[in-house]
Amino acid sequence: MELCHAVLTSLLHGPALDHWTLPNGVRCVAVEMPEAPLTCLDLWCRAGSFTEAAGEEGMAHFLEHMVFKGSDRLEAGAFDLAIEALGGSSNAATGFDDVHFHVLIPPDQSQKALDLLLDLVLHPALERESFRLEREVVLEEMAQYADQPDEQVLQQLLKQGCPDHPYGRPILGERSSLLEMEPEAMRTFHQRRYRGQHCCLAISGPKAKELRAMSESSALAQLPPDPSTPAKPKGLRLQPGRHTLELARLESARLLMLWRGSTADNQDWVMGADLATTLLGEGRRSRLVAQLREELRIAESVDMDLSVLEQGCLITLEISCQPDDLEKVQATVHEQLEQAERFSTAELARGRQLVGNGLRYSLESVSQVASQAASQTLWNRPQELLQPLQHLQGWSEERLSAELMPLLKPDRACTLIATPAGRR
Length: 424
Hints:
This protein has two domains: 5-222, Cytochrome Bc1 Complex, Chain A, domain 1 (2-Layer Sandwich); 241-420, Cytochrome Bc1 Complex, Chain A, domain 1, CATH 3.30.830. Helix content is 40%, strand content 18%. It contains 16 helices and eleven strands. The chain has helices at residues 5-8, 59-67, 78-85, 110-122, 128-146, 149-161, 175-180, 183-193, 212-216, 267-281, 287-295, 326-339, 345-361, 366-378, 388-393, 397-404, and strands at residues 17-21, 27-32, 39-45, 89-94, 99-105, 199-205, 241-247, 253-260, 301-307, 314-321, 414-420. The protein has a six-stranded mixed β-sheet, with helices on both faces. Strands 7-11-8-10-9 form a five-stranded mixed β-sheet, sandwiched between helices. A hairpin with a 5-residue loop joins strand 1 (17-21) and strand 2. Helix 10 crosses helix 13 (345-361) and helix 11 packs antiparallel against helix 12. The relative contact order is 0.17. Residues 1-10 have low confidence and may be disordered.
């Protein structure tokens, strides 16, 4: 673990943040972590799968692959070799809302690493032959994903629950769209999304604030701003209902339920939802786990998760069991959620402790800190990293029962019953 002294001694606020904005709209944030052994450079962009237009399904993730195939100055593979030679490592990830590229590097190599990272991400070569070859890699990744029954079940739940929204389609995209893509279309997507106001750079580690001048003279400052008026986001509406699915090679039956919540900028609601899902489905003493697994012993696993998303958070409940136990599992879940008995003082204390610890542990490394700071800065909600703990304390037993538990009623959920093919 890379737990820093600055985190341990800042349990109320977390490491200090320094925010600034470049003239073209690029947001930047530096997080001082003086005893960390590495510096993290994390470049985020509002260019996730949500931003894809019709026919671009999968473009954001495919572009993430193509970035590493070289830039105007760097040949394919040269970036990784250069970063490794400097003693660092790199990675990237694409989500529904955004994409980010990060580098972990010794502090004295930060300037060189940032120049390399920005050259790679902001000026991808998108060479035609590399495009053709990498498309096959992405198609193979899609095939592997489709071959995993657990992933198929979850994707089907999102498709049924969010049928008219980008959150309901795979981030990897659709095979038909991938086959039709050309480098020119990807370049247009890149030029449309990788603009000043859509980007954020986070720097965390030793002397992070001293690296401010580095960003102001970097290629980030040369990004053009976006002159267009931001389009109104497509509202996320969850479609309640009950669906069934038979799937070959599914080892156990599944009960899945999906609810829509508030948007990510409502941090007070997010903390309440995090607390509620923890009380219901995290740990042996949570209500659903205790009853389904420990007492009745009719569930093999119980998982309840909160996905914090910009257009509307999603809460998922997934329970695996034997097909013969599905009916009883569903009845028990409905009973628990319909009754919604007020949580006890002991339950609430346990839940607050688990949620608070999770937030504190998320500040253990420079990469985790940079990721959190970049995400909230990118979406224009800068705050101290541990400020959500204040919201957490505002959720009493009464408030949870009155404001949040009613949102988790079974009739408000999109429900999917998945069974192994040939069995009910």
